[in-house]
Amino acid sequence: MSAFQVRGVIPPILTPFTQSGDLDERAHKFNVEKWNGVGLAGYLVLGSNGEAPYLSEQEKVRLIGLTAEYAAGGRMILAGTGLESTRETIRLTNLAAGAGAHAALVITPAFFGSQMSNDALISHFRAVADASLIPVLLYNVPAYTRLSIPVDVVGELSSHANIAGMKDSSGEIERIGAIRAVVPDSFQYIIGSAAAWYPGLLRGVRAGILALSNFAGAACAQMQKLVDEGKKDESAKLHEKIVPVNAAVTSTYGVAGLKYASSLLGYQSGYVRSPLRELSDGARHDVKRILAQSGFIE
Question: In this predicted structure, what is the pLDDT of residue 4?
Answer without folding.
Answer: 85
